[in-house]
Specification:
The protein has helices at residues 54-62, 88-98, 101-129, 136-155, 159-177, 201-223, 242-265, 286-301, 318-331; strands spanning 6-10, 15-20, 23-28, 31-37, 41-46, 51-52, 66-70, 76-80, 274-276, 282-284, 303-305, 312-314. It is of the alpha/beta class.
Length: 343
């Protein structure tokens, strides 16, 4: 099983990264501030402006260290990749099966089963753990609706129907998501999903972490030899990581939504850590972003037993395990793609 490595997040706007032997040197205004060994890194995510030296980029490519650039808001800018990895035959099989309606429906349905099941688990846990603080009747009604949606997904025979079911499930789920916010309700109101730009603090958190998750899934897909751009549920579009977007659906509730609720309900972040821009969008300040990134890394270190593999793994390896299972299905080693069901 793959080892979960460290991720270096560069949040200081003036920082510039260079390479010195096997060491990363972080410089700020021509002064050396930090030196870090390269060998134990899995990825580097940059929110800075000056960038990274070509030598360090080359070293990251050679060592399979992921390298991506994001705006301070979390909006994705670019990823640096080297030679295409993986078996050419696997990618050819992926391209072939992506055009096959029956296979596309099968994979898309599996992804949505995982998403709806895990979304329902988020709601059910809130009912179980905080019955006196939430509107249990309303939440139970949505849980029942999502249960019925799971049955409908299993019987759907085309992508249009599946996309309709996904949209309806997401509308009901996010319709009650604000009710799962138990503390700091005034600073963290939530009436529904919005983005590009996010217009409230909760949506700013969700969009930021969804971007990080998409990056992790894209890297995992490339590592097992698949093309993140060619998906089954999400339509192909230039520059769109459709397959990564397919796989993050089942992981959103577990890795992101629960973390957002934890950060707010445990008061690990405050409403004062968010700034409204002239465009109407909401951004995190530097201190809040660092807290969120730290919590994200800690969340990825938590151990779970994978329900299909029956192995104990860090939760941060879920993108890799699901990419691996999808590759095995596309190669014909599995009868279907087994989604991740959060127990």
């Amino acid at each position: 099983m793959k080892r979960l490595g460290n991720v270096l997040y560069i949040t200081t706007p003036q920082a510039y990264l260079t390479l010195d032997g096997e060491t990363i040197v972080v410089k700020k205004e021509e002064k050396q501030s930090t030196r870090l060994p390269l060998h134990n890194l899995e990825a580097i995510v940059c929110f800075n402006y000056p960038g990274i030296s070509p030598a360090l980029m080359g070293a990251c490519v050679e060592r399979d260290i992921g390298l991506s650039f994001l705006q301070p808001s979390g909006r994705f800018l670019a990823r640096v990749t080297g030679r295409v990895k993986g078996n050419l035959l696997l990618r050819k099989k992926q391209y072939q099966l992506a055009q096959d309606e029956r296979t596309a429906v099968s994979v898309a349905a599996s992804c949505l089963l995982g998403k709806v099941f895990n979304s329902r688990q988020v709601i059910n846990r809130a009912i179980r753990d905080h019955a006196l603080l939430v509107d249990s009747a309303t939440l139970q009604a949505v849980s029942t609706f999502l249960k019925a949606t799971l049955i409908a997904i299993r019987t759907a025979d085309n992508l249009e129907t599946l996309r309709g079911l996904e949209g309806s499930a997401a509308k009901h789920y996010f319709g009650v998501f604000g009710g799962l916010i138990l503390h700091q309700k005034r600073d963290f109101p939530f009436t529904g999903r919005n983005r590009r730009p996010p217009r409230d603090n909760i949506n700013a958190l969700l969009s930021f972490l969804y971007t990080l998750l998409t990056y992790d899934v894209s890297s995992a897909l490339e590592a097992v030899g698949l093309d993140p751009q060619v998906g089954f549920l999400h339509a192909d579009r230039p520059g769109r990581p459709s397959l990564a977007l397919d796989l993050i659906e089942e992981l959103r509730p577990v890795l992101v939504d629960r973390l957002v609720l934890t950060l707010v309900n445990r008061k690990q972040i405050k409403g004062s850590g968010f700034v409204s821009k002239e465009s109407g969008g909401i951004l995190m300040d530097d201190d809040t972003r660092k807290k969120v990134l730290t919590a994200w890394q800690e969340r990825k270190q938590e151990q779970i037993v994978h329900p299909y593999l029956q192995e104990r793994i860090p939760i941060g390896l879920l993108p890799h395990t699901q990419a691996l299972l999808l590759a095995r299905y596309l190669r014909g080693d599995l009868d279907g793609y087994p989604p991740f069901f959060w127990k």
